[in-house]
Task: inverse folding
């Protein structure tokens, strides 16, 4: 028993089995190193296998396109190169939408009347698309805002140096003379027509001498083409062009035209607030996004929200990417005021899919802020300053910019603030070599969009030789009457029944009060004859002007009358007739303005006013032809391109 116990006690004391021929037990540290290296290699192999599996699983999965703002940050960090840390504060996306190809030069044939002949020549033109809120700057001085200068008539009569658009291209200058057909002296016999055989003989004789420039032979429509030779000679002969032969080129590579060197690339955002219930597609179009990508984005939003109309208080946050000379909407977020509802982005397969909300934009909270002064998307300048800065940065002359201001004066409040969607497109002739306006340049076309409302004007020379600008229907850009005789003044009191601020009784207020500082010039609302200049009890110093067709305007509470304004004098629209004051029953400096039709006061802000001048009959027909030629010219290279303009 003792032997058994000793055997049991000795168990475990035997030396370990040796498989590699070594004598003695291995070192414990050697065992730990082997275990550690084996574990490491196993983990490394597992990680590689898992990575391969994940890559295979994710390959082909739909992914959202890399956000342009992030891609730009990476690109700039790479450009920084030698250890310089990229500064993301430089990478803030521009506030205004960046547009591609905002300047285009073209050669257009025009026809000018010289004596009894029409001279056709090729003239260079420049088309410019200006995003007014794109932060344009200029070192050139421009005149400060002055209603008196803006609405004053030009002293000199305008003369046209650039003729009407002709349409067909010419290799050199061509002179044309039109004469009436001499019907009275024409001598021809209707019964002396050629027979079929004679016509065939003429065609055979003339066929060999036809060139590619000859595009019409009357008799070919009535004679079998096979009678003039075999198929091979027809295919290669001089009559090939006349017989409708179409040569198809093979093994020809067509390369895309290089984009302009100054085409902008980048990412920008725009806010579209809804002040009323509106269709989503229409809201995009009103803000200048009318291309296929905008319609696709609108359809995607409508599908996910189950409605094609957004309510008042909604905001669209539109992200536009400009790349390789082309712009498109790549992301749109929908907000109910500041509450995020939905974000849709364009993925790598060009499909619209839901996405996460982008980084917060503080401007969304102020999208509906209308407290004076109106400030949209930051500290943007006034419309007046924005037009001058943009026009000067694109090389427009002072004379042409003043002309543009005058054209828009009747429809635009120059003292209000710009919004990101405000833009102007102009077309002018005869630029210099740098694409800037020269002394001979003339403004032929202007399209301005402010607050979602578009105004389009075309230059036209009338029969009497005078030049004016008209809308699409041939109505003059100049209004019959201004609705505000003190541009820049604010409305302090409207038209209608209310309590008088001094008398304290309810009575009819028969006009509109425009409040502004004392001494501000008051402008004649239209051409007319002065009927009264003097004191009028509670109206204080008052001026009354009689206009055509039973219209009258009244200007009250003036501090002083303009010199030389007397009853019976003829005044022009925009002429200074007095100065803002507070005479009579008044609580502060303002001008009380009335419009009367057949001695009956009407609301100046609501009454429909006649236009200044409308083209009629032959002049209207000629104007529409010129309008259509300009529209066709501007659409030639705009097809398929989003209408967005680049920053300078």
Result:
């Amino acid at each position: 028993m003792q032997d058994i116990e000793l055997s049991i006690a000795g168990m475990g004391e035997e030396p370990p089995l040796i498989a590699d021929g070594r004598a003695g037990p291995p070192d414990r540290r050697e065992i730990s190193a082997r275990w550690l290296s084996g574990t490491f290699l196993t983990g490394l192999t597992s990680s590689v296998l898992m990575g391969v599996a994940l890559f295979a699983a994710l390959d082909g999965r739909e992914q959202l396109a890399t956000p342009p703002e992030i891609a730009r940050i990476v690109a700039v960090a790479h450009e920084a190169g030698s250890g310089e840390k990229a500064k993301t504060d430089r990478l803030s996306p521009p506030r205004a939408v960046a547009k591609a190809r905002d300047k285009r030069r073209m050669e257009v044939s025009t026809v000018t009347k010289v004596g009894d002949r029409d001279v056709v020549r090729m003239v260079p033109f420049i088309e410019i698309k200006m995003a007014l809120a794109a932060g344009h700057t200029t070192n050139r001085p421009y005149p400060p805002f002055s209603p008196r200068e803006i609405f004053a008539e030009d002293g000199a009569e305008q003369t046209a140096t650039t003729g009407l658009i002709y349409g067909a291209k010419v290799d050199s200058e061509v002179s044309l003379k039109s004469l009436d057909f001499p019907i009275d002296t024409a001598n021809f016999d209707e019964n002396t027509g050629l027979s079929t055989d004679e016509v065939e003989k003429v065609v055979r004789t003339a066929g060999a001498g036809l060139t590619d420039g000859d595009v019409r032979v009357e008799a070919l429509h009535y004679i079998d083409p096979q009678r003039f030779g075999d198929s091979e000679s027809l295919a290669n002969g001089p009559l090939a062009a006349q017989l409708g032969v179409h040569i198809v080129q093979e093994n020809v590579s067509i390369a895309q035209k290089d984009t302009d060197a100054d085409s902008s690339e980048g990412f920008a955002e725009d806010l579209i607030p809804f002040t009323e219930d509106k269709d989503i597609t229409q809201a995009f179009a009103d803000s200048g996004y009318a291309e296929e990508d905008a319609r696709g984005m609108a359809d995607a939003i409508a599908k996910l929200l189950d409605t094609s109309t957004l309510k008042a208080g909604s905001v669209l946050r539109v992200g536009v990417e400009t790349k390789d000379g082309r712009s498109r909407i790549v992301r749109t977020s929908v907000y109910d005021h500041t509450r995020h509802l939905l974000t849709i982005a364009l993925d790598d397969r060009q499909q619209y899919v839901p996405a996460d909300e982008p980084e917060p934009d503080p401007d969304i909270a102020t999208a509906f802020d209308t407290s004076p002064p109106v400030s949209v998307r930051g500290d943007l300048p006034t419309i007046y300053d924005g037009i001058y800065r943009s026009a000067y940065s694109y090389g427009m002359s002072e004379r042409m910019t003043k002309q543009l201001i005058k054209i828009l004066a009747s429809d635009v409040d120059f003292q209000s603030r710009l919004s990101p969607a405000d833009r102007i497109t102009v077309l002018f002739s005869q630029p210099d070599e740098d694409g800037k306006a020269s002394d001979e340049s003339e403004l032929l076309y202007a399209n301005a969009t402010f607050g979602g409302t578009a105004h389009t004007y075309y230059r036209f020379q009338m029969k009497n030789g005078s030049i004016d600008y008209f809308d699409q229907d041939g109505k003059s850009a100049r209004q019959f009457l201004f609705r505000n005789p003190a541009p820049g003044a604010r409305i302090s009191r409207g038209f209608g029944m209310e309590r008088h601020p001094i008398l304290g009784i309810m009575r009819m207020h028969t006009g509109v009060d425009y409040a502004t500082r004392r001494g501000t010039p008051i402008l004649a609302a239209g051409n007319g004859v002065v009927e009264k200049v003097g004191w009028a009890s509670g109206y204080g110093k008052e001026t009354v002007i009689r206009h055509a067709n039973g219209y009258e305007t009244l200007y009250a509470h003036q501090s002083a009358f303009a010199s030389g304004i007397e009853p019976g004098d003829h005044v022009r629209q925009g002429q200074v007739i007095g100065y803002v004051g507070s005479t009579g029953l008044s609580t502060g400096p303002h001008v009380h303005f009335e419009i009367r039709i057949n001695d009956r006061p009407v609301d100046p802000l609501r009454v429909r006013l006649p236009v200044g001048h409308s083209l009629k009959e032959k002049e209207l027909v000629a104007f529409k032809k010129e309008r259509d030629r300009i529209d066709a010219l501007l659409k030639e290279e705009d097809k398929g391109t989003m209408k967005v303009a680049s920053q300078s």
Remarks:
- The two ends are 107 Å apart (CA to CA).
- The chain has eleven helices and 27 strands.
